[in-house]
């Protein structure tokens, strides 16, 4: 181990900072090219032969690589040029560089150079440079500049067998077969028409030419052998990045391939036998659509690798409506139906939730993390830029010309363009430089935009970028390759503590690539995996920088070498550089720490699928935020046949029967046939409840009917009640309940009038085809005898609250301890509503909490004395904070419903706040599909992009609309303080998606009731990425800290899918959770007590 003390450098840096101006006191300072000597410009020289119309990929830009080419302990810089020479800059210290391009021999020829990576190809201890080549035509062979050890290079790609002929964007080196040497993966982007149909991609994926596929080259010593087909990697994709990481902790490096347009991404898991398995649809619920650059890193310090993939979704209202492509429903569904994936136009930050067997599972949390929308993005980099121990995020973005500007391209669509006018039309494409984005890691799964605060908000056309400690002071500078602008170097001014790690591998992998380093301090445990290619068309230094904040001691550093050996150092000095040698490591089996004392385990008990019927809600309701025809099924459990074993019933969609499952003595269930009339499968089952309504000792069945397919007041919207004969045989009696033809959602029961039988509250959801007009809700009074079940509607003297809102759930709970069960109701766009039971009659109680502050999209509510203080508290499930729809301190999220164009049809208008102004959520095209006059009022997209809500719909029309708003989308805990409730948000892991169901049970046997939540919303419209970030969460409760979310990898709880309902049922002397999912198999999860 070699140790280099950097205390003097640190002191000098701090002294300089004290004397700096206010501008340079920011986290980063932009250095002048005159001072650094780095004056590279990736200048595009467009003409009538080469321009956007002849080569649409012209603005993808170049990359930058960093590494110490002359072994002087200073990282050097290499920039690629598309239509200009590459440049190599030698670091002379103090952030000064010499241009040695000409003498080094790396300037290249007239090829279109794209990505590059530095690597020691021949293990001679000197870094070489591999450069990718693309372009409209001409020579496309990739190049390899081999270091001659004297600051000169010799091009030898052909000699090594890696002069790939594809339209290459980037390459990455890794030891995929773990034979000790470094192999090569080349990412290729075959030139493809932008308007190619999904059928084209599907065909090409089955019929890929050699020059189109990405390629894997096996290192065989002095040469490489192409093994693409043998490894299972031959495929067609518009690859913009290929990134390496051991995603499943099995010590074998895996691959993530990010593809543009409809071509699906690929996640290749390394099988350990020289082959790979593609698992993207098994390991993720969604990906980005226009997949650009990717970085793989552990951003939440849980020792599992996560990844960020960027796309082109604008944060700014104007740019999103004027310049960004819209998500066409036909395009989206054709992509899905061709077997690709659910691909959405936004950044995806994929959180590694668990590793099961050899497969990880990721949830996209980009909306929760506030990094989803960063305009036309290219290169993401996850690194600790402020040295606080948590990896931050830097994203390059910008496009030299706004090639998605809708007005411009609509204007020239019908114009004939002669070949000698193409440059003219190219130059007329609007152009707007925009700032890159920098996000500080808040250490809680969220990030804060610090672009301006950190001095990184210069407007650019940026593409490739990298980071390195160029001045050896322990923090990371940022280096950017821009189009038609000078390259940028941002000096990092961090004053936090750090440790820098250099790895010295064995003779065939001197850099120790694929090794992992884990640094433990008092505050954090961090992990980095050494891979060079990151982001977009760029590669990073082989030195690993770890920020440690204010910690003054490093407890332990562990290196897991690429060959499996380990090396551990204790009590390492801070603010220093250590060099670790693989020769000092010991052979030790690495056991992946993927197993914990899990409380839950999925089991296969039976196979039964809820089958949703085909219905297009958007034909009648163009701007509906989500489908109301896909809200089921409900589920209910109980012993229906009196044998002491619990059974269950699950609802069916229209044209699917309600299903009754009777538990047998073999620990499974039998599906009972002919229980319910054949004609009843025409109903849409929303919810159900098993209770003894007639007090005869057995459980009867009440089913809520609903959906969006039928006309308002249709007989198919009437609920159903089935009387149990005590043996599990159910008899339907249409006269036992009133003729309430209301599209319902949930039912709950209580003896509210204390007459000895159970009454019902049935929450109405929505008038079919008329969202957001709420359906009527009803309080049903039980008038049953042992021979006859009978319910009647409570009149207004008892319950004068039929028009409550879009009800989604309710609970009966005596919140004021007066012995009378009160009713609490929640819904979509509603507040949390408390109805006080005053000896059998109800009044709304607004004294408990600020009503408006609770307006949300609520989906479930449960009551329990969680803190054991003698009164009832509540947990309420909301939409969550990982959805496109957001609220903030600056504004609400709203809906207005009115016949705005006076065509006798209601119109839906959603609105949001952006930079303090209220705007329509939808763009000009979608809005005019509903109201054609909008296109007449706003002649082009630019005019609409700056129009406020009032500009589009007028203040009088909005004031006369049905208007709802939300103040929060967070799921919450309401603590009863005696005469009021205190509201607090559940932990962030509970905010990853909508919470559709909450179960309560003391899982850890500590005397306090815990909760299990699940949900998701797959029924969103396609411009709103579906809410699919939840895999269920177990939350432990203790009275001091409240609820604590247990990560999936620890709890074992994994309930993925569009979960609509859950029940706890006793089976085989164990408790199980049954989860009912829309259009999916029901799932059983054993609770391991």
Task: Give descriptors for this structure.
mainly beta, 5-stranded antiparallel beta sheet
Structure, described:
The protein is built from 17 helices and 76 strands. The protein is mainly beta and 1089 residues long. The strands form 20 sheets. A 5-stranded antiparallel beta sheet has the order 22-26-27-29-30, with no helix packed on it. Strand 68 and strand 69 (981-985) form a beta hairpin. The longest helix is centred in the first third of the chain and has 12 residues, at 7-18. The two termini are 48 Å apart. The model is unreliable at 1-23 (pLDDT under 50).
Topology:
Elements: E1 2-5, H1 7-18, E2 28-30, H2 33-36, E3 64-67, E4 76-79, E5 87-93, E6 96-99, H3 101-104, E7 112-119, E8 128-134, E9 143-147, E10 153-155, H4 157-160, E11 168-174, E12 183-188, H5 198-206, E13 215-219, E14 224-226, E15 239-245, E16 254-259, E17 266-270, E18 276-278, H6 280-283, E19 287-288, E20 294-297, E21 306-309, E22 312-313, H7 317-322, H8 329-337, E23 343-344, E24 348-356, E25 359-364, H9 366-369, E26 375-383, E27 392-397, H10 406-412, H11 422-427, E28 434-435, E29 437-441, E30 447-449, E31 459-460, E32 462-468, E33 477-482, E34 488-492, E35 497-504, E36 516-521, E37 525-529, E38 533-534, E39 538-539, E40 544-549, E41 554-560, E42 566-572, E43 576-581, E44 600-603, E45 635-638, E46 647-650, E47 659-663, E48 669-672, E49 685-691, E50 700-705, E51 720-724, E52 730-732, E53 744-750, E54 759-764, E55 778-782, E56 791-793, E57 806-813, E58 822-830, E59 833-838, E60 841-844, E61 856-857, E62 860-864, E63 873-877, E64 893-898, E65 907-914, E66 917-920, H12 924-930, H13 933-937, H14 941-945, ...
């Amino acid at each position: 181990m070699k140790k280099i003390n950097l205390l003097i450098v640190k002191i000098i840096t701090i002294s300089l900072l004290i004397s700096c101006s206010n501008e340079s006191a920011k986290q980063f300072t932009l250095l002048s090219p005159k001072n650094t000597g780095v004056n590279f410009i990736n200048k595009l020289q467009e003409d009538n032969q080469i321009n956007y119309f002849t080569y649409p990929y012209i603005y993808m830009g170049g990359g930058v690589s960093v590494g110490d080419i002359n072994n002087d302990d200073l990282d050097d810089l290499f920039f690629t040029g598309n239509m200009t020479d590459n440049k190599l800059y030698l670091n002379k210290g103090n952030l000064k560089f010499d241009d040695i391009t000409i003498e080094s021999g790396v300037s290249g020829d007239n090829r279109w150079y794209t990505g590059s990576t530095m690597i020691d190809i021949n293990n001679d201890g000197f870094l070489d440079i591999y450069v990718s080549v693309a372009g409209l035509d001409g020579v496309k062979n990739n190049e390899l500049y081999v270091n001659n050890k004297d600051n000169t290079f010799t091009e030898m790609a052909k000699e090594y067998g890696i002069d790939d002929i594809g339209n290459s964007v980037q390459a990455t080196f890794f030891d995929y077969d773990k034979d000790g040497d470094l192999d090569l993966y080349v990412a290729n982007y075959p030139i493809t028409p932008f308007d190619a149909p999904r059928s084209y991609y599907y065909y090409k994926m089955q019929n890929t030419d050699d020059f189109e596929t990405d390629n894997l080259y096996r290192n065989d010593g002095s040469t490489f052998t192409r093994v693409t087909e043998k490894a299972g990697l031959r495929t067609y994709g518009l690859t913009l990045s290929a990134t390496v990481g051991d995603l499943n902790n099995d010590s074998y490096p895996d691959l993530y391939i990010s593809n543009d347009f409809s071509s699906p991404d690929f996640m290749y898991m390394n099988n350990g036998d020289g082959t790979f398995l593609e698992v993207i649809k098994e390991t993720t619920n969604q990906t980005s659509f226009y997949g650009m650059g990717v970085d793989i890193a552990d951003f939440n310090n849980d020792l599992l690798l996560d990844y960020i993939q960027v796309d082109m979704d604008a944060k700014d209202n104007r740019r999103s409506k004027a310049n960004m492509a819209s998500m066409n429903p036909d395009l989206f569904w054709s992509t899905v139906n061709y077997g690709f994936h659910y691909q959405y136009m936004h950044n995806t930050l994929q959180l590694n939730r668990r590793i099961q067997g050899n497969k990880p599972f990721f949830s996209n949390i980009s909306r929760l993390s506030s990094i989803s929308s960063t305009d036309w993005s290219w290169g993401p980099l996850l690194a600790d830029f402020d040295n606080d121990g948590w990896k931050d995020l830097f994203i390059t973005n910008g496009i030299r010309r706004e090639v998605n500007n809708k007005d411009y391209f609509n204007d020239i669509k019908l114009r004939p363009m002669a070949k000698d006018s193409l440059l003219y039309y190219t130059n007329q494409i609007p152009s707007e430089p925009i700032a890159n984005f920098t996000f500080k890691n808040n250490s809680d799964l969220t990030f804060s935009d610090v672009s301006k605060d950190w001095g990184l908000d210069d407007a650019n056309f940026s593409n490739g970028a990298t980071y390195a400690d160029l001045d050896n002071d322990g923090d990371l500078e940022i280096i950017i390759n821009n189009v038609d602008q000078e390259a940028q170097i941002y000096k990092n001014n961090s004053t936090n503590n750090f440790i820098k790690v250099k790895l010295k591998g064995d003779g065939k992998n001197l850099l120790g690539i694929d090794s992992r380093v884990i640094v433990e301090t008092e505050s954090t445990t961090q992990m980095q995996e050494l891979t060079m290619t990151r982001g977009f068309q760029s590669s990073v230094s082989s030195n690993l920088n770890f920020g440690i904040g204010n910690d003054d001691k490093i407890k332990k550093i562990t290196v897991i070498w690429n060959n499996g050996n380990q090396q551990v150092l204790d009590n390492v000095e801070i603010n220093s550089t250590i060099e670790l040698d693989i020769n000092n490591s010991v052979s030790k089996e690495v056991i992946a720490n993927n197993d914990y004392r899990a409380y839950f385990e999925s089991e296969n008990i039976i196979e039964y699928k809820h089958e949703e019927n085909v219905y297009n809600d958007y034909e009648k309701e163009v701007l509906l935020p989500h489908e109301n025809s896909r809200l089921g099924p409900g589920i209910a459990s109980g012993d229906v046949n009196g044998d002491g074993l619990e059974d269950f019933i699950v609802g069916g969609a229209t044209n699917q029967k309600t299903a009754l499952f009777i538990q047998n003595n073999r620990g499974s269930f039998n599906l009972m046939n002919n229980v319910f009339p054949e004609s009843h499968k025409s109903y849409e089952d929303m919810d159900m409840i098993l209770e003894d309504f007639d007090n005869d000792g057995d459980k009867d069945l009440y089913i809520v009917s609903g959906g969006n397919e039928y006309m308002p007041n249709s007989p198919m919207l009437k609920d159903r009640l089935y009387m149990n004969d005590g043996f599990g045989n159910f008899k339907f009696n249409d006269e036992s309940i009133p003729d309430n033809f209301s599209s319902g959602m949930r039912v709950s029961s209580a003896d509210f009038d204390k007459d000895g039988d159970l009454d019902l509250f049935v929450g109405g959801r929505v008038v079919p085809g008329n969202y957001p007009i709420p359906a009527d809700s009803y309080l049903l009074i039980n008038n049953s005898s042992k021979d006859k079940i009978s319910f009647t509607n409570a009149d207004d003297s008892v319950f004068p609250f039929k028009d409550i809102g879009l009800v989604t759930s309710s609970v009966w709970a005596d919140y004021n301890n007066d012995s009378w069960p009160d009713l609490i109701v929640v819904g979509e766009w509603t507040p949390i509503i408390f109805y006080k039971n005053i000896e059998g009659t109800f009044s709304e109680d607004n004294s408990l909490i600020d009503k408006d502050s609770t307006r949300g999209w609520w989906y479930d509510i449960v009551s329990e004395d969680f803190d054991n203080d003698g009164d009832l508290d509540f947990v309420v499930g909301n939409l969550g904070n990982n959805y496109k729809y957001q609220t903030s301190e600056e504004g609400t999220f709203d809906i207005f419903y009115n016949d705005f164009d006076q065509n006798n049809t209601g119109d839906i208008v959603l609105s949001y706040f952006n930079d303090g102004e209220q705007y329509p959520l939808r763009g000009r095209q979608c809005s005019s599909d509903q109201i054609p006059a909008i296109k007449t009022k706003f002649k082009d997209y630019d005019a609409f992009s700056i129009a406020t809500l009032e500009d589009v719909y007028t203040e009088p029309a909005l004031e006369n609309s049905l208007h709802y708003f939300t103040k929060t989308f967070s799921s919450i805990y309401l603590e009863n303080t005696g005469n009021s409730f205190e509201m607090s948000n559940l932990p962030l892991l509970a905010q990853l998606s909508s919470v559709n169901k909450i179960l309560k049970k003391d899982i850890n046997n500590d005397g306090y009731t815990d909760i299990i939540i699940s949900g998701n919303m797959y029924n969103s419209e396609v411009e709103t990425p579906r809410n699919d970030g939840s895999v269920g969460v177990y939350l432990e409760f203790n009275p001091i800290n409240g609820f604590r979310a247990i990560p999936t990898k620890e709890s074992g709880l994994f309930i993925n899918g569009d979960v609509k309902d859950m029940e706890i049922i006793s089976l085989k002397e164990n408790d199980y959770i049954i989860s009912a999912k829309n259009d999916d198999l029901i799932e059983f999860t054993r609770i391991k007590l």
